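thread: overnight batch results

M.L. [08:02]
morning all. the overnight job finished for the chain we discussed friday. pasting input first so we're all looking at the same thing
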Amino acid sequence: MEKKEIKQCKGYYITDDGKIYDSENNQLKTFKNTIGYETVEINERYYTVAYLVARAFIKNDGCMLVGYKDGDINNINVDNLYWYYEGELDSGEDKALYELNEQGEIIKKYETLKAATKGVHISLSALQTRVITRDIIITRTNQILCKGERYDKYTIVDKIRKEQQHLEELKQTGTNTKKMIEIDNEGNIINSYLSATLAANEKEINYRTMVNNISKNSYHITTDNTIMTYEEIMKEKGINTIIQAKKDKISLGENKTKSNKTRQCSTVKTFKKEVVIIDKQGEVIRRWNRIKDAAEALNIKPMVISNSFKNHRYYRTTDNENLICLTTNLSQIRRRIDEIFDKDIVIGQYEIVECDEQGNEIERYKSINQVSKKLGMISQTLRYRIVEKGVYIDKNNHAYMTADNYDNEEKREKIMSIMKKNDDCFVVECDTQGKLIATYKDFREIRKRLGREDFFIQYTMPREGIYQCKDGTVFMSYTSYIDDEQREKRLKKVKV
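M.L. [08:03]
and the structure it wrote out:
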């Protein structure tokens, strides 16, 4: 058994089988998180044990996700773990997700994982993770799911029984997902949630903050001044005890020094951020108290607006007539408003062109999000295909590429010619002098050639533009390969 210090947690050590010790050689207790992964708390932060094991003992070229070779998330031994790139989630011949009954019969089909989240009570991140690690997924509402490429009508019933038995074992050991309760100041139960994740999403609360507060104080105070706690804590301590603890903590903060009072009051502070929409002259058209309210009024997903705020401090509407921003950033946005509207495309977005097999334009889209809605695909995956690889081909053999590539006749013709010759070619393998060796339409084909090394390609190639294998051959996107200038630029990065 090998032991190493955890780099991000000095004074703590981890073994290759997932046991964690402090500087005095005391073993730390672990617990199952909301989706069943072994988790540990160190210095008021939570880490999945598998991630810490992989970080300490497995070489990583930049990948951020940990996979399980046998599909068992409880097996956190270093021999069972590997690093992989997120793009691997979308590889496969059949990306559909089937909803089944207990007899293994298909009762509903979802074309993508994102589409499944609308009809199934499970988050996209949790669904993505379980698709990789399990053949059968049973949600908290007892909905049974199976990925299309893993569906086998002859063995599916046995897989369902095995998964049901696994969940029953978790319940008996007390490691199943905890139910969340919302209470008002009078002790009335307002809402109940199947998990902390669902509660955090519904109430627009940071999941980690809520869970940490509940671990420390047995409760978390929402922006509406209600109380969130686990059902088991409520039954154990009683509603009145939790309400009194909240009152005591608030009153205690009033008698402390100014600095302590400020810190204490942050637990009950309302974090609602006023949102406004302004025109090209900087005049305020409408106000909302929350991002969620603005999103509902404008028929936009709250996450789209909040992510845009993080990157640019504003969100430009699709009609290019208005800006959405926080009141705290309003004066700064007004000073830059002419500069913002002078840009043809919102930062981080691309105009996309759909064309047929002959290269004839069918339709133009203002953003990748519009294309993802039409195709029912995850926007991150689509962006990776179009921007990083150069083109995406749908089931009707329609090509999607950036407007810059399409409007350049030379680039468009090269892209279309490669498509025709190589049947949806995405990746090119060549030698260090640029001589073509082979073409690949997806990473599944590359795995047959390289095995696990393709995970590193998926991460390194989009970031660096090129990847050199152990045997010296080189991989790059075909759009870079057919461009003489880009090909030479990337080949300069590799070892000859």
